[in-house]
Amino acid sequence: MLAVFDRSVAKCPEALQSPQQQPGAGAAAASALKDGALGHHFATAHPAAVNVNLGSSGLLAYSLDRQNPLLPRLFAVVDDIFCLFQGHIENVALLKQQYGLNKTANEVIIVIEAYRTLRDRGPYPADQVVRDISGKFAFVLFDSSCKTAFLASDVDGNVPFFWGSDSEGNLVLSDDAEVVKKGCGKSFAPFPKGCFFTSSGGLRSYEHPMNEVKPVPRVDSSGQVCGATFKVDAETKKESSMPRVGSAANWSSHY
């Protein structure tokens, strides 16, 4: 799977960008969104790939090529909400009941419904909603109605999931590390375990929601800084200022 979001939709963490790749630094690599270049590369590398143009917001691509049968890939669109999902949810029956879904709903539909419940009603903190998903998973969701991105990975990082920044600061995500390298050069890293990212709230840990997440520079074999990994800072606590939201509130304005 592949997702590229314009920096106006999902602002890439500055620490993820290597000095050579930061916008305005004269990086040689082209924008991953220019002429759909990275989407075309993905389609070449993965036969029968489906590319979805999100206009000025970015692009999505999906393929069943070389997928792990134990961690299948799924794609769905419901009411202008696009979602790429890879993996397996263990507590499917419980989540179907919680969100009032029918028996035919699968993992990707559950994630879409969980997001829509957060967006429209906000009954729980976003970190709790992701934490309630038990299994091996990584997902990327885009809500075209409010140009919001939402993504997460399980607590053990069982599904390969990488992210990076292209030369213009656009966010690139894929389960294929080589695709992210193609679009981001050295400005990429594995997506942090047990974390989620939203357009308005950035990167947060749902496993340890009261702790800050701090970047740790990555150094390659030649000694060059190439992006950063992100770790939960056990010493730094967030201020307890979680807002209460009513039934009419849009959760994305708070997270």
Structural description of this entry:
The chain is an alpha+beta fold. The chain has one domain: Aminohydrolase, N-terminal nucleophile (Ntn) domain (Glutamine Phosphoribosylpyrophosphate, subunit 1, domain 1, 4-Layer Sandwich). It has 5 helices and 14 strands. The protein has helices at 37-45, 92-99, 107-120, 126-131, 177-184; strands at 2-5, 50-53, 58-62, 73-78, 81-89, 135-143, 148-153, 162-165, 171-174, 188-190, 195-198, 202-205, 211-219, 225-237. A hairpin with a 5-residue loop joins strand 8 and strand 9 (171-174). Helix 2 packs parallel to helix 3. It is globular and about 50 Å long. Mean pLDDT is 87; it is low at 23-28 and 240-249.
Name the features:
alpha+beta, Glutamine Phosphoribosylpyrophosphate, subunit 1, domain 1, 6-stranded antiparallel sheet
In brief, what are we looking at here?
The protein has five helices and 14 strands. It has 255 residues and is of the alpha+beta class. About 6% of the residues have low confidence.
Supply the CATH superfamily name.
Answer: Aminohydrolase, N-terminal nucleophile (Ntn) domain
Most strands sheet: 6 strands, antiparallel
Shape: globular
What's the total helix number? 5
Integer count of domains: 1
Q: Which spans have pLDDT < 50 for at least 5 consecutive residues?
A: 23-28, 240-249
Residues in helix, %: 10-25%
Derived structural class: alpha+beta
Which radius of gyration do the C-alpha atoms yield? 17 Å
For the record, the CATH architecture stands as: 4-Layer Sandwich
Q: Beta-strand percentage?
A: 25-35%
What is the CATH class name?
Alpha Beta
Topology, number of strands: 14
Would you tell me which CATH topology applies?
Answer: Glutamine Phosphoribosylpyrophosphate, subunit 1, domain 1
List SSEs in N-to-C order: EHEEEEHHHEEEEHEEEEE
> Major sheet: order of its strands?
2-3-1-9-8-10
Distance between the termini: 25 Å
Question: How much is the average pLDDT?
Answer: 87
